[in-house]
Write a structure and sequence with these properties.
137 residues; alpha+beta; Nucleoside Triphosphate Pyrophosphohydrolase; 4-stranded mixed beta sheet; 3-stranded antiparallel beta sheet; 2 helices; 7 strands; globular
Length: 137
């Protein structure tokens, strides 16, 4: 597939950061694309949806937590070409939420120190985000 024919997929993700400076990662469940890989929680932006609204919705659906928009800080983004689509993924930081994250749509959750993130297999698009989080935290 040519670069021009590759469809653009817009996904938003969040690095939830706990008081100990650890980042929450979620393991993709069996039966989904890239099953078993670890990722930052988030999801696809619906047509007409703002990234912040999408992230608030996805974190509620996936983790059972409530996040308010002022607690979301835009941090960086990933841009990566997979075989059949190009992924554009803004990454937000969040240090405040209500509730305890639960794996409602993931196989598992893990709190990891930024320097430990490279020990977990992640989708290719997520890999460039790890050094940025290590430098920040």
């Amino acid at each position: 597939m040519t670069e021009a024919a590759r469809r653009l997929t817009l996904v938003v993700a969040c690095a939830l950061i706990d008081p100990d400076g650890r980042v929450l990662i979620a393991q993709r469940p069996p039966g989904k694309a890239m099953a078993g890989l670890w990722e930052f929680p988030g999801g696809k932006i619906e047509p007409g949806e703002r990234p912040e609204d999408c992230l608030i919705r996805e974190l509620k659906e996936e983790l059972g937590i409530t996040v308010r928009e002022p607690c979301l800080a835009p941090f960086t983004f990933a841009s990566h070409s997979y075989a059949d689509f190009h992924l554009l993924m803004p990454l937000y930081l969040c240090r405040r939420w209500e509730g305890t994250p639960q794996p409602l749509e993931h196989a598992a959750l893990k709190w990891a120190k930024p320097r430990e993130l490279s020990q977990y297999p992640m989708p290719e698009a997520d890999l460039p985000l790890i050094p940025m989080l290590r430098d920040l935290l």
